[in-house]
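Reopening: TIGR03757 family integrating conjugative element protein still failing for me.
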Amino acid sequence: MPVPFFKASPRLPTISIAPGLWAVLFLFTQTAAADVLVVTDSHHPVQAPAGVRVIELDQATRIEVKLAAHLPADPQQAAALVRQRLHDGGEALQRRIGHAYQGVADAWGLGIAKIPAVVVDRRYLVYGEPDVPRAVARINAYRSTQP
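Support: Ran it again with your exact input. Result attached.
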């Protein structure tokens, strides 16, 4: 019986394979998938191997919440404290903020509508699978049947 695939983007093809087939195909996932991207948030953890880009859609919000924590009621004092926190965080904080927003833009550009989402080569997509190797195996199985 095929595993259901939830389609949300007309730009990416839908796929499904028989349960258990992913285990056989797992051996091929490391070489067959050139570019793997995972889109999720902190409430939907995923199991991604090292080197896989994971976008957490709520990362920017979490950073902003930390920057805004325990601010004084006075707007000028609050602004000064946020500037100080940004300064203290240095370039590393600026990069984290930039990467967080770039990730949201990348996910939006791909038309991601549900999470977790695993995208391979910006063409193939599996929704709802937190095990990234398993999702990549499903994609590779689909790709192997296509001309």
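The radius of gyration is 19 Å. If you still see a failure, please send the error message rather than a screenshot.
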